[in-house]
Design brief:
Length: 130
């Protein structure tokens, strides 16, 4: 429990601190550094998405283990469907590369163009006979 709860709390607090620091420094130097802020905004968003993936993957099983160890030791025996929550942690590592790839602006533009082409081809138009 300590091996999962401590990193989870540390990541949440560190991300909140970093986001507050970025917002405060953005207010101080708003007019001077427009280009730098675009890059920092992208980095902050990518950090937020990666950390939220970690938190969403690990928080349910950590909360479940805290509840089970402190209040209800037979929780998983009473509700066996809660055992599936522990499998969420296995999705964190395989999904991380996809979060990183979505942070690349060139790739997102090409994906948007590709999806537009596919959706425009999928339109059904009536056939006119002469």
């Amino acid at each position: 429990m300590l091996n999962t709860a401590f990193p989870l709390v540390t990541i949440i607090l560190a991300n909140i601190t970093l986001i507050i620091r970025v917002i405060r420094s953005m207010k101080r130097t708003r007019q001077r550094q427009v280009i730098t802020w675009k890059r920092q905004r992208k980095l902050t968003l990518q950090l937020f998405f990666l950390s939220s993936l970690f938190v969403l993957g690990w928080a349910p099983s950590t909360i479940l283990s805290i509840i089970q160890s402190s209040a209800l030791p037979t929780l998983l025996e009473d509700i066996p469907s809660l055992d599936y929550i522990n499998y969420l942690t296995y999705f964190v590592c395989p999904l991380q590369p996809f979060i990183c790839v979505l942070g690349l602006p060139e790739l997102t533009k090409s994906l948007k163009n590709f999806l537009r082409k596919i959706l425009s081809r999928a339109k059904v138009t009536p056939v006119q006979t002469i």
